[in-house]
Design goal:
GO molecular function: oxidoreductase activity
Number of domains: 1
Strand order of the largest sheet: 1-2
Helix content: 55-70%
Protein name: DUF2236 domain-containing protein
Domain ER-bound oxygenase mpaB/mpaB'/Rubber oxygenase catalytic: 126-311
Shape: globular
Strand content: under 5%
Largest sheet: 2 strands, antiparallel
Number of strands: 2
InterPro entries: Lcp-like, MPAB/Lcp_cat_dom
Length: 374
């Protein structure tokens, strides 16, 4: 798509979800209890639909829970299998590639910054951790085996994400500090870019991690997230089939939107702080920055204000240890071993994270726990 077509998408949102959310908050504009009930229901991801919601909200969940006619169960299953095998690395890609690339989109980053859910407040990192862990949980819910099946957690989670996006649009649209030049909050270009950051960018990142995927595996994982995009409210034409077409779509969006912003810089800093916080001790000091720079490259690293070139000798040193330990391994293999090790430690820390004295709501199915040795 050309730049004019992409810019037009910044004026488009999700009429179905917007209509439902506007109706709900118009009816309960001064009803704090109903408002809290609504957001609590959305924040609990895959939990069942709570009692007490209006009929039209219940209808939304039941009428939008079926797979689209074009969904291919075999491709979905192959995509799920890829996640079963490489889940820790895929979840690591969220932190070192997917989210940073989204933050480099100057206008789209404004939504995340304005909502305040990803920014440390007065030095308190709990909110940052919670939001990033919610994103990780969303990916697990969608990509786990049968996550998009009738009894899976992925569809219900995606339906709730769709309403949460509409809620953010509703409240930001009523605020006085939203610049129309940024486009509509969480518009179709932003949503399509986010979808590619979760799919084609992840596949690209796995390749950078020395993992050799077949074309069928790549296309299957793209298809899995194409189905997820349907439930989130992304227009079908913005969810292309196949890795090559999907990656090209993502590239066109990121090339159109990438530019430095204070919001992007703050978000990148919060992401680095999150990973450093999740990996206490000295062994992994500065490795998160090393990985962000390595996966992002010079242009995006400079846009995010994280510096260039990578200056962490520890990352290269550990990579060299893995290479030297196995005489049959080349440098790429050493980097792949380092990625796998870091990914497993990061996921373990997230799985055992507490905030406010309580264990975080973070669920990994038993089958994946066994495969990932958690």
């Amino acid at each position: 798509m050309n730049s004019n077509e992409l810019r037009a998408l910044r004026k488009e949102t999700d009429p179905l979800a917007d209509e439902i959310v506007t109706k709900y908050f118009t009816e309960s504009a001064f009803d704090r209890g109903k408002t809290l009930l609504f957001f609590d229901a959305l924040s609990r991801n895959s939990d069942p639909i709570p009692a007490g919601l209006p009929d039209y909200l219940e209808r939304y969940f039941y009428e939008t829970e079926s797979l689209p006619s074009w969904a291919d169960p075999n491709k979905i299953a192959k995509g799920e299998q890829l996640f079963t095998v490489y889940g820790p690395q895929i979840l690591m890609m969220l932190c070192v590639k997917s989210l940073p690339m989204a933050y480099s989109c100057g206008d789209g980053a404004q939504v995340l910054y304005k909502t305040g859910r990803l920014i440390e407040q007065n030095g308190v990192i709990d909110g940052v951790n919670r939001r990033l862990m919610e994103t990780t949980q969303f990916v697990i819910s969608v990509a786990q085996k049968d996550g998009l099946g009738p009894q899976g957690k992925g569809i219900r989670t995606a339906q709730k994400v769709r309403l949460m996006h509409a809620s953010i649009r509703y409240f930001l649209g009523k605020g006085k500090d939203w610049d129309p030049a940024w486009g509509q909050p969480i518009n179709q270009e932003d949503m399509a870019g986010t979808l590619q950051s979760f799919s084609s960018l992840v596949i690209e990142g796995l390749g950078q991690s020395s993992l050799k995927l077949t074309p069928e595996e790549k296309d299957a994982y793209i298809h899995l997230w194409r189905v997820a995009g349907h439930f989130i409210g992304v227009k079908p034409e913005l969810c292309p089939e196949g890795y090559d077409a999907a990656h090209a779509m993502g590239e066109s969006i990121f090339n159109d939107q990438q530019k430095p912003s204070d919001a992007g810089h703050e978000l990148a800093k919060s992401l680095l702080d999150f990973m450093e916080y999740m990996l206490p001790g000295n062994l992994f000091d500065h490795l998160p920055l090393f990985f962000l720079q390595t996966y992002m490259g010079q242009k995006t690293s400079e846009v995010l204000g994280i510096g260039w070139p990578p200056k962490n000798p520890l990352g290269y040193f550990i990579e060299k240890i893995f290479t030297d330990f196995d005489g049959h391994m080349d440098d790429d293999g050493g980097f792949g071993k380092l990625v796998a090790y870091f990914a497993s430690k990061l996921l373990f820390s997230m799985d055992h994270f507490y905030y406010g004295g309580k264990k975080a709501r973070f669920w990994i199915p038993p089958s994946l726990r066994e495969n990932w040795r958690l």
